[in-house]
Amino acid sequence: MEATAAKLIGREKITGATAALFAGSVEVPERFLRTKELQAAGVVVGDDETFKLPVVNMAKLLDPELSASETAKLGSACRGWGFFQLTNHGVDEAATQLMKDSTAQFFNLPLESKNTVAVREGGFEGFGHHYNGSSSDKLDWAENLFLYTQPVQDRDMEFWPANPPTLRHALDRYSVEMTDLARRVLGFMAADLGVSRDALLGAFFSRDDHDDDTLKPKMQSVAMHHYPPCHHVDKVLGIAPHTDTLGLTFLLHADDTPGLQIKRGGRWFPVRPLPGAFVVNVGDILDVLTNGAYASVEHRVVPDAERGRTTVATFHDACVRGQVAPLPELLGVGGGEVAARYRSIGKLEFRKGSARATAQGTRFLDTIRM
Ligand SMILES: O=C(O)CCC(=O)C(=O)O
Ligand SMILES: [Fe+2]
């Protein structure tokens, strides 16, 4: 995130007082209290069968006999839900386990150790609170380590913790796995959308030639989240409602504590992650690329009363020749049969606009919809 955007949605350092609060002090300070917001935000549904998040099975996507129907399932999840769980994804289990363990160990360290990679004034990378907009001074009940992971030259190693000693290697390895996973998933999304693989993958990756092995993400970033337990779950939020501004997100759960909720039909629906599955969601840029076919859907996190929760979100950025715009193939280039539902906008303008909207608690996509 460039300096201007970072200023609009600053991140704050975790103080000793916050660490004590997260460790269980009883009185929740005003800055964390969101009772009114939570009351206004509407109903949370229970474990209603009809609200089961779609499950997409990568093994079926890869099976020639089952691929077509599973691709349709993937498409309908992205269109109707904006979210799905991905099973049999083929991500290296040892890499995933190392990432989970190293992340959990990082958040278990004393504050002084975590603050060696603390977010800096006006900056975005590092350890701290989630961003908070200037219109709301509220803080989320969470601590977060945000890093750019790809392309490799964009890494700022000063923010990559040296402790626990496995974390840097874990991130490096995991980041490659997530690149591969994004490549595979986007290939099937292209099939569902009826666009060429090159068109959709070309928005997310740059490549040296037509060899898939040289595909490099235009930008991949990772947010490691820790939500301490909270006895006042009706008063605080782990992450305030938002949509993901980038293209595609993969969420890894380091434990089985629930907390993620998706907004659907005006109600908040809790996600119950299947063991070993990734929760995958469409971000704002993929919504625009698909000309609104895939939906970027609002979600939030509520802390658990008894157990902490640790997750790792991996984001992939995308653009078409420097623009955030519907894929030309979807508009029937030249023929112009399909009307664009979003106006195209320069990458930088998109980032600034998204940051401004986040700061104001509004949705930037609403301002570029035609
Ligand atoms: O931790 C989670 O469940 C969700 C994280 C999230 O929404 C994000 O990082 O954008
Ligand atoms: Fe998110």
UniProtKB/TrEMBL annotation:
It holds the Pfam family 2OG-FeII_Oxy. InterPro entries: DIOX_N, IPNS-like_FE2OG_OXY, IPNS-like_sf, Oxoglu/Fe-dep_dioxygenase_dom, Plant_2OG-oxidoreductases. Residues 218-318 form the Fe2OG dioxygenase domain. Keywords: Iron, Metal-binding, Oxidoreductase. GO terms for molecular function: metal ion binding; oxidoreductase activity. Signal peptide: none annotated. Belongs to the iron/ascorbate-dependent oxidoreductase family. PANTHER family: OXOGLUTARATE/IRON-DEPENDENT DIOXYGENASE. This is Fe2OG dioxygenase domain-containing protein.
